Each structure stands twice: as structure tokens, then as C-alpha cells.
Amino acid sequence: MQVRKAAPALPEKEVVLAITGKAHDISQDVEVIQSALAGEHAGIAAYRIAGGSGLLVPDTLKVALLFKSHHEGHRDALAKLIGNIGATPVAPKSDDDYVSQLKLGALKSQADVLSLATTLERGAASGYISQISSIRDSGLSQLFAQISADEMMHWTTLNGVIGGSLPAEPFQFG
């Protein structure tokens, strides 16, 4: 699997200033942001633990590490938002907790890792989409939409690698 460098992202702005350039009051959205941050911690752990398992061939590992770096970027943006409103970002669980929660100990092959990653990425994309409607701040909604697009890109890539077909029906995420 070949990894190409993506087009440069939009210039990194203060995420709180998001789309409109105005300060946003996201304090009422902190629980949603914390939940998203917890999900990013789980995604990072899954890629880190599976990546260190020795089950992935080098090209697949390269993509897994790229996707992990995307999740780290999501984590950092979400944690910064939480800190900016004066709350403490939720901490990651222990690796043992993630191994148990995500059933990472059952992974025996690269195919197992890819299948799990595909499932997790689909859940992440759907999770972000479903949370958008509960967010009160439009700038934060935009951030969640951007993150969900990354998660859908991950799912689409992984789904293709495992030989999955594209969904025949619309509205597959959310």
C-alpha cells in the first residue's frame, strides 16, 4: 500500500475561532468534546498496540502509523479546546484496558487487525456525525465534520484493502 502526501491542510488556526473568526462559547459542549477525546485515545491505542504486535507487514504498518498520527492530531485539537475552556481533558486508559475493551488480544493476523480497524473507523465516523446535531457551537460542528471526514477516509481505505465493497445504499454513516 502506497502512502502519498496529502495536500496541505488549512492553516492551523486557533480551533476555538474555527470558521467565523469569532470567539465561540463551547463550554456547553464540553461533554461531547470529552467523549470524542476518549474515542481518539482509544483509536491511538488501537493503532499503537496493533502496530507493535508484529502482525502488520511494513507497508500496512506505514499506513497504520499515518492514521494513528491523524488521530493524534484530532486528540491534540480536542484536548486544546477542553483546556481552553478551563476543563481537564479526559486521560487515556491503560493499554490493558484498551486490550480488553477492544479485544486486541484476539488479533492473530494482519487480516484481523485490518478488520478491527475498519470496524473502529466506521464507528468513529458515525460517532462524530451523530454528535454534530448535539453541538451548540457552529465552529465546533465544523471541526467534528472535518474529523468525521478523516474517519471516513480511513474506513474507505481500510475497507478497500480488505476487499470490502462500497455500500450500495446512501447514508451509511451517522
TrEMBL record:
Q: What's the protein here called?
A: Exported protein
Could you tell me which InterPro entries the record lists for this protein?
Answer: Ferritin-like, Ferritin-like_SF
Pfam families associated with the record: Ferritin_2
**CDD domains cross-referenced by the UniProt entry:** Ferritin_like (cd00657)
